[in-house]
Amino acid sequence: MTALKVAVWRGGESGHFQEFEVPRLASQTVLDVVTYIQRSLDPTLSYRFACRVGMCGSCAMTVNGKARWTCRTHVSRVAVDDRLELAPLANLPTVKDLVTDMSAFFDKWAAARGRFRGDTTRKDDFARVKPDSPRRKLVDEAIECIGCGVCYSSCDVVSWNPDYLGPAALNRAWTLCNDVRDVDRRARLEAVAGDAGCHACHTQMGCTERCPKQLSPTAAIAGLKRAALAAALKGEL
Amino acid sequence: MNIRTQVLLWGAQRVSAAVLALCVIVHLATIVYAVRNGLDAAEILGRTRGNPSWAAFYAVFVAAVTVHAPIGLRSILSETFGWRGRGLDVAMFAVALTLLTWGSRAVYAVFGA
Ligand code: SF4
Ligand code: SF4
Ligand code: FES
């Protein structure tokens, strides 16, 4: 059986890579590798996961230099010469080892008004939204986000401008802007427009290339840019 | 700077980029034409001076540069050096005025004088 050589980040903001040898198995995921290290080699290793099936968004790390969800990334796809380098996500403060503090990431969802607000009560009838209506289709394209932070960690603008809301929060805002039941559209456009919002995006598509759910935050952001410009021209911002 | 102004600046940069793309093509074609035909400065000025079409073209060119360059520079400076806020905006306004002044002098030189 061959062995994988795995360099794992240890420490907080400052630290070092520690080398481990992990048995190479068939169909092994990067998360399997991390779990093996923690269960069999060093129980002090800290990392995050929950669902192991690509739903919860908690297992993202930097794998050989690129942000990825680790539970659904096969070692065979990413190991170079049976080597892996595992580090915490970029653009977020490291708490310990492979664990980052994701507060800023989620605070920005709140700042982008990523919460639905309707104006009906339980006494009203259900809203009827046709699945093939144009706005519902735009929602479909962006709705499957699992909040993993891979896009946020892959975006250069986030590293250059710490106030930038980032691709995931803007993508979320775009789904709500296209929700015909939502009544917060104007305030949301104001929250996501301008220098710290969608207009800061350089359309380099790092987020879209890396998003494990194959979403395109870039397209969502382009939609927000146009919607906000239209609102600004009408004097609604 | 308020949000609305930020958004309108973004829009202005998009529009001025489209104008610049056209202007640069025309400008390059003009240079190639002048070089190919061996025109010297006096001959070029002979054709542009007093010609309102050239004056209008270069006035539009200068206007587009005046709008486009400072907005882009503002982003570059804030992303590269973390410079933000009123000081940056005032400085970029000064850059715009400088570009407008130099550009207008150039337009005046090829058209009038
Ligand atoms: S497209 Fe925009 S949001 Fe996505 S990585 Fe590039 S700059 Fe960031
Ligand atoms: S948009 Fe994609 S990469 Fe970004 S948080 Fe959502 S699922 Fe993850
Ligand atoms: S562990 Fe839930 S997405 Fe990977």
What are the salient characteristics of this protein?
heterodimer; A: 237 residues; alpha+beta; Fumarate Reductase Iron-sulfur Protein, Chain B, domain 2; five-stranded mixed sheet; two-stranded antiparallel ribbon; 10 helices; B: 113 residues; mainly alpha; 4 helices; 0% strand; elongated; binds iron/sulfur cluster
Notes on the protein architecture:
The complex is a heterodimer of chains A (237) and B (113). Chain A has 237 residues and is of the alpha+beta class. Chain A folds into 2 domains: 3-100, Ubiquitin-like (UB roll); 103-233, Alpha-helical ferredoxin (Fumarate Reductase Iron-sulfur Protein, Chain B, domain 2). In chain A, 36% of the residues lie in helices and 15% in strands. Chain A has helices spanning 30-41, 75-78, 103-111, 134-142, 150-154, 156-160, 167-177, 185-192, 206-210, 217-233, and strands spanning 3-11, 15-23, 60-63, 66-69, 83-87, 94-96, 99-100. A 5-stranded mixed β-sheet of chain A has the order 2-1-5-3-4. A two-stranded antiparallel sheet of chain A has the order 6-7. The relative contact order of chain A is 0.13. With 113 residues, chain B is mostly helical. Chain B has one domain (3-112). Helix content of chain B is 87%, strand content 0%. Chain B has 4 helices and no strands. In chain B, helix 1 packs across helix 3 (52-81) and helix 3 (52-81) packs antiparallel against helix 4 (86-111). The longest helix of chain B has 34 residues, at 3-36. The model of chain B has no long low-confidence stretch (mean pLDDT 94). Classes of the chains: A alpha+beta (237), B mainly alpha (113). The interface between A and B is medium-sized, with 17 and 13 residues. FE2/S2 (inorganic) cluster (FES) binds next to loops of chain A.
